[in-house]
Design brief:
The complex is a heterodimer of chains A (about 425) and B (about 100). With about 425 residues, chain A is an alpha/beta fold. Chain A has 14 helices and 15 strands. Chain A has one domain (about 1-405): Thiolase/Chalcone synthase (Peroxisomal Thiolase, Chain A, domain 1), CATH 3.40.47. In chain A, the strands form 3 sheets. An 11-stranded mixed sheet of chain A has the order 5-4-6-7-1-8-15-14-9-10-12, sandwiched between helices. A two-stranded antiparallel ribbon of chain A has the order 2-3. In chain A, strands 11-13 form a two-stranded antiparallel ribbon. In chain A, a hairpin with an 8-residue loop joins strand 2 and strand 3 (about 50). The model of chain A has no long low-confidence stretch (mean pLDDT about 95). Chain B contains 4 helices and no strands. Classes of the chains: A alpha/beta (about 425), B mainly alpha (about 100).
Chain lengths: ~425, ~100
């Protein structure tokens, strides 16, 4: 059997704006930011940072109280996104019992960087701050990194592989890519993929602060705190959230009349093998080349890149160098945007929400902008930055979504628009 | 671990048993939204949706709220009554 083609048949997310996927994308297309100022009452030093939070998300309402009670917040978010994608793909939650499809050929491939860090932090507070001697018996299953993936598989009855990837900021992109490979190689017919993270634990935020890569802000300015590629960029903004994509064997999707949104055509994964936190353009170029080769796409067929673009001093120019190296002279006209400027950096879920954005960009022929990009850093010039509002009607044929993680792990996904499916 | 006592034991409704029952009822109201009147000594844990993980949570609740200490090798109770008996037995002062 030759390599199988992989369709994307469902999308889901927990939107930081509180609405549905269509609302989320419409806001991104306008360059609207979901970043707000976040403060806590921790003593003696409360948090006061720009952040993205899914404040309107009610886990009990979304999942039902008995189910929600066995999960930490990152799993709540992931489960809700997965349910939405599942239903968008034309399934219902009890479909396994109908026996219509082989659910042992359906699996989960999920990403998270921090897993149940909130559960662990609660436990540490209880033990060391509140003087308790014991933790809840749920502490282990709330905190384990594969909790979200396991809950998804259990609730939907998916009997193929159930795998979790923890690759820092590339976690979800790697999960989507590895899930794609299982379908492409004939080991599964459907993989529910994506990622979730809830990184706004006190200790996590404090840890990121001392890496000196968090953008500052206050109640008035936080909405524009994340400014990728901008001359005055000041760092990244942590966010919580989740996004999910249903990947499906193309023929299987056609046979059941599923909605096909785009093709996941290729995936490239490399390691910089150089430095723990300093990115390397050569490793990024190799990952993009592998994704293109896997997809059977020429660089000239890529009409949009959703950049990793976190708004750090080191990361942004390195990615631009990588893009210029790969695309050569065409880079100057290649539309590029970093949507973290609006939805923040979702850590292990970043690759999922950006894959979702890239699919929607191709589907609606609407390439969302990098928000707040008024003055491009000279070191970040050389591509066509999308600024202000979205670029529409370009007829974009294919796109890349880049994820480049601490540790030097690069994961690139290549998507083909239905306009260009051969 | 001693065998659990029969549910009929709770017709006497000792103070300890009521305390234990209250802990179970409050827990299940919070976690599963079950009304108190559904939590009777005769009700089986399976009927109420209490799986092995939730049973561990309940044992933890007892230890936290009733100041008892449960060993790791207790017999798995089938009914609420059996569960209460396990806890109540620990609360009864030992006789010489």
């Amino acid at each position: 059997m030759g390599k199988r083609r992989v369709a994307i048949t469902g999308l889901g997310l927990v939107s930081p704006f509180g609405g549905d996927t269509a609302d989320f994308f419409a806001r991104l297309a306008r360059g609207e930011s979901a970043i707000r100022h976040y403060t806590t009452d921790d003593k003696p030093r409360p948090l006061s940072v720009p952040a993205v939070r899914c404040t309107g998300f009610d886990a009990d309402a979304a999942l039902g109280k008995p189910l929600a009670g066995t999960m930490d917040r990152f799993s709540h978010l992931g489960m809700a996104a997965a349910f939405e994608a599942w239903e968008a793909a034309g399934f219902a939650r009890g479909d396994k019992n109908a026996g219509q499809y082989d659910f042992d050929a359906f699996g989960v491939s999920w990403g998270t960087a921090l897993g149940g860090t909130l559960a662990y932090e609660r436990g540490y507070r209880d033990l060391w701050l509140h003087g308790r001697e014991r933790l809840s018996p749920l502490a282990v299953v709330l905190g384990m990194n594969n909790a979200a993936a396991a809950h998804i598989a259990i609730q939907l009855g998916l009997g193929n592989s159930c795998l979790s990837y923890t690759v820092a900021c590339s976690s979800a992109a790697a999960a989507i890519g590895e899930g794609y490979r299982r379908i492409r190689d004939g080991e599964a017919t459907l993989m529910l993929t994506g990622g979730c993270d809830a990184p706004l634990a006190y200790g996590v935020v404090r840890a990121w602060e001392n890496l000196r890569v968090l953008a500052p802000g206050n109640a008035e300015t936080s909405y524009k705190a994340c400014r990728p590629f901008s001359a005055d960029r000041a760092g990244l903004v942590l966010g919580e959230g989740a996004a999910a994509l249903v990947l499906e064997d193309w023929e299987h999707a056609v046979a059941r009349g599923a909605p096909i949104l785009a093709e996941l055509a290729g995936y490239g994964a490399t390691c910089d093998h150089g430095h723990l936190v300093k990115p390397d353009a050569a490793g990024q170029v190799r990952a993009m080349k592998l994704a293109l080769a896997d997809a059977g796409l020429a660089a000239d067929e890529i009409d949009y890149v959703n950049a990793h673009g976190t708004a750090t001093r080191e990361g942004d120019p390195t990615e631009i160098v990588a893009l210029k190296t790969l695309f050569g002279e065409r880079a100057a006209t290649l539309p590029v945007s970093a949507t973290k400027s609006t939805h923040g950096h979702l850590m292990g879920a970043a690759g999922a929400i950006e894959a979702l954005v890239t699919v929607l960009a191709l589907q609606h022929d609407t390439l969302p902008p990098t928000a707040h990009l008024d003055s491009i850093d000279p070191d970040c010039q050389g591509v066509r930055h999308i600024t202000g509002a979205a670029l529409t009607g370009t007829g974009a044929r294919a796109a890349l979504s880049n994820s480049f993680a601490f540790g030097g792990s690069n994961a690139v996904l290549a998507f083909r628009s239905l306009r260009a499916v051969r | 671990m001693q065998p659990a006592r029969p549910a009929a034991h709770f017709q006497s409704q000792t103070l300890n048993a009521m305390d234990t029952l209250s802990v179970i009822r409050d827990f299940l109201k919070d976690r599963l939204g079950l009304e108190h009147d559904r939590i009777t000594p005769e009700a089986t844990l399976e009927q109420l949706g209490i799986d092995s993980l939730m049973l561990l949570e309940l044992l933890f609740e007892f230890e936290e709220k009733l100041n008892v200490s449960l060993s790791n090798d207790i017999a798995t109770p089938k009914t609420v009554g059996e569960l209460i008996a396990i806890v109540e037995q620990l609360q009864t002062p030992a006789t010489a």
